[in-house]
Write the structure tokens for this entry.
Amino acid sequence: MSVLTVDHVAVGYTNTVIIEELSAAIPEKKITTIIGPNGCGKSTLLKAIARILKTQNGAIFLDGRAIQQVSTKEIAKKMAILPQSAEAPSGLTIFELVSYGRFPHQRGFGTLKKEDLQHIHWAIEVTGLGELRDRPVEALSGGQRQRVWIAMALAQDTEILILDEPTTYLDLAHQLDILLLLKKLNEEEGKTIVMVLHDLNHASRFSHYMIAMKDGKIITEGKPEKVMKSENLKAVFDINAILMTCPFSQNPICLSYQLNKETECLLQTC
Amino acid sequence: MTEENYISAYQQKKHRKNIFLILTICLLIIIMFMISMGTGFIRLTPIELVRTLFGMGTDKQNIILFDFRLPRIVISILVGMALAVSGSILQGVSRNALADPGILGINSGAGLAVMLFISFFPTTTAAPVFFLPILAFVGAGATAILIYVLAYKRGEGISPTRLLLTGVAVAAGISAAMIVLTLRLSPENYQFVAIWMAGSIWGSNWSFVLALLPWILILLPIAYSKARVLNTFNLGEIPATGLGLAIEKERLILLAIAVGLAGASVSVSGGIGFIGLIAPHLARQLVGAKHQYLLPTAALIGSLLLITADTIGRWILQPSEIPAGIVVAVIGAPYFLYLLARSKT
């Protein structure tokens, strides 16, 4: 049972504070998506949760304990991270890269035990990479490579998966492919998934919970029906959006949109 | 499902292939060892060699083999290993295939410390022999700290490119300082230092082997036990953090191991560059990026390269000798340029 809460956190880089004060609770065994314009601090928040950035104030709690006070290895047994653009070292096969996911569970020289092998095997199968397991990672397509990283995170055997823009650089079909895989992992394995997405319609379609951010603050959060409203999208992205219900998933989606400025111009000329 | 099914036939084949490669390099080292024992100003035929080894040689042959050649060969094997593992670690931690204790200036730092000692306390007695690795370690360590501090940027950590560029600059500075120092040396000491700096395996006696051996025996197993950590470092900082690697702590430990190995090597063999660059690179081509294979393979290739270079250096311009470091550099410099031309950044 892992519970992740962000409590009055301030975080940023050396000279700039990106998030001044932010609190949020990530619902357990659900898919949570953070949305917001570029530079709103969504990746920063994700990095803080992933303990890549240190919080300057406040704390992030995992199972009731502040993550800064728990050893990084202990956290790695509960929470796996998929960075935005991970680059695999050359000369590794899929099996080898996925086996690196066992790091927090290993000791000493790192010989793979039966339990490790079982997890690696399962991770490769569930991500549909079984046929490719002995191929070098650099020979794979973008979509396959993203799957390998997800498989590595799965081999880590954690309850929480954190993904920073997992669909960036992928074409439409492969984007959906990855999101369906995440949905399956959430439904069948009960994984808690936290991710940043740029595509609002994907966010709405695949999330149970959405967090909309702007300027380091949460503007609104809740179910997609609550967040995907034209007044919210105006406040967050400064756009005028036409919303409708998705015929596939019955979630609200954005059919088209205009910049707020544009709309004002139009109204004036009319 | 049984355990065997989890490891594919390909994986098993790869493992067997890697073990075979490692054994092949061992065999090549043994062959080179034999050739090297017979090579030099005074040739020993294979028969003489075997007789001498079994205690039936003449006094002269005994002295040549046991007091001059054997310690020298053993030192090249140890130094080759140490430099190769040091380079592998530096390349792993910095994620840069061009990192090497020579290029990063760690060797020069060790050299400067040793040279300062020699120029102020000129002596050739055996007493400071055990002291030299420690001195070299201090010099190498100080240089490593200097490079680390200069390359470190708050909030961003160490970028591989910054580390490399800083290292090159510091190495150039130290070399300049060493040249200035040589000016105030007496001719005899100058001769000695010049040969040593060129990377001659000058410690041709057993006390040098004994001074070097503990460092190797302690640091190499520690390095091997960090294979898993090095694998994780290879993924980059964010994935490594996600996997629960204590980055700052492990980086410091690994750098200390690399510095210790490089420092100890330099103290007995002088400035031998490029081994730490070439050996890990060749090993990666042969056995892949997993450090469980990469580290031992690189170590053996390092030994093979250095023992070969030393033998060539002794043989090519007889009766005079070329320091092994120069032979290595003749091969290593073009290889470095080749790597540089091939690398993307």
